[in-house]
Amino acid sequence: MTAFINILLSFLMVFGGVASQADLLVRPEKYNAKTIKVSDLPVPVTQAETDDYIQLSEVLMHYIVYGKDKPPLILVHGNGGSVNSLREAATYLVNDYTVYLPESRCHGSSSDPGEITYQLMAKDIKEFIEALGLQKPVIMGHSDGAINAITLAADYPDVPGAIIACGANSHPKTFKPYFPLGVAIKNLFRRDKLNDLMLTLPDFTPEYLAKITCPAYIVSGQYDIMWASDTVYIAENIPSSDMAILRGERHSSYMSQNGKKAYALAREWLNAKQL
Question: 82, 86, 195, 205: least buried by Cβ within 10 Å?
Answer without folding.
Answer: 205
